[in-house]
Amino acid sequence: MLLRIRLTARLRRGLKHPRTSRRPLRYRALNPIRRRANQLTRTINLYPGPPFTSADDLAKQVLASAVLDALIAAGTPPKTNPRNLPLLSLGSLFAGREGRARRPRTALLAAKAGAVALHGLGGVGKTRLAIEYGWAREAHYSALVFVSASDAASLNAGLAAFAGPESLDLPEKEARDDATKITAVLHWLEANPTWLMILDNVDDGAAVGAVSQLLPRLKGGHVIVTARAANFPSARLRTALPRPSR
After folding, report:
1. What mean pLDDT comes out for the span 205-213?
2. d(CA 239, CA 108)
3. 119 C-beta neighbours (distance < 10 Å), count
4. In whole angstroms, what is the distance from residue 144 CA to residue 91 CA?
5. Mind listing the pLDDT tens digit for each residue in 106-163?
6. Percent of the chain residues past pLDDT 90, beyond the cut
7. Is residue 210 within 8 Å of 238, Cβ to Cβ?
8. In the predicted model, is pLDDT for residue 100 greater than 90?
9. How many CB atoms lie within 10 A of CB 32?
10. At 110, is the secondary structure helix, strand, or coil?
11. Is residue 102 over pLDDT 70?
12. Domains of the chain with bracketed CATH
């Protein structure tokens, strides 16, 4: 009976003093968990603000703090300039054609009006050359604008669409008429110079006329016209002829 009382007393002392070597095995096994809990508690206590009383309370404090802003910023992709090029760059697959890709740049620098025409037969790679040039020089332009200009209606629709949420996201995007949207786009381009606009598929006289009327309104950037037609006013366009693709 006396031995049983002594063992019980020792067991109780072990429960009261878990840090002693005589504590039960189950308490020693909990030490890593307790240490980790203590570390987490100290870390949480470093966070400025009132202590939380529950998981819901902690969530409310985090949502109302700068922590949420930091998390959002960390997951936000870097901002890119407005662009709507319909094709991705070929990258290394375009290797070996760097000389062709430099031709629009050379022509644009030489053109007083900042506009050049790539004209030739269908399938020679005019559109691809213009797009590859745009991707290669993306960092140098405030915007990359691609507009189908096969006729006046397509040209106007393409310019108006660039005011939309996926491009410039201008307030005028909700306007009912394209003229208001086009005017807003042109104002944005003038206020944000060094943009690039590609006017694609200018293949007949009517399309040439529509583009010729637009060019004087485009200020502060570069224009590349891809066309089968060759009868552009020489005073407004400098021509760069791409060689046929092989």
Report:
1. 91
2. 9
3. 22
4. 17
5. 777 776 668 888 888 887 788 998 999 999 899 999 999 999 999 999 999 999 999 9
6. 39
7. no
8. no
9. 9
10. helix
11. no
12. 2-74 (no CATH), 91-239 (3.40.50.300)
Residue 83: phi and psi, rounded to 5, are -160, 150
Residue 165 has pLDDT above 60, yes or no: yes
Strand partners, 223: 115, 197
Determine the 3-state secondary structure of 214 from DSSP.
helix
Amino acid at 30: L
CA dihedral 89, 93, 96, 101 (to 10 degrees): -10
Are 199 and 75 a contacting pair, CB within 8 Å? Answer: no
Interacting residues of 188 by C-beta distance below 8 A, sequence separation 6+: 168, 170
- pTM of this prediction? 0.64
What residues contact 162, with CB distance under 8 A and at least 6 apart?
82, 84, 145, 147, 168, 185
User: DSSP string covering 114-151, please?
Assistant: SEEEEE-STTSSHHHHHHHHHHHTGGG-S-EEEEE-SS
Region 20-32 average pLDDT: 55
- Mean pLDDT, rounded, of the chain: 76
Q: Give residue 7's pLDDT.
A: 47
Q: Position 21: which residue type?
A: S
**Edge-to-edge order in the sheet of strand 115-119:** 144-148, 196-202, 222-227, 115-119, 238-239
- Helix extents (H) in 21-151: 25-29, 31-46, 55-63, 66-74, 98-110, 126-136
Q: How far is residue 20 from each of residues 11, 31, 38, 120, 170, measured CA to CA in Å?
A: 12, 12, 19, 91, 72
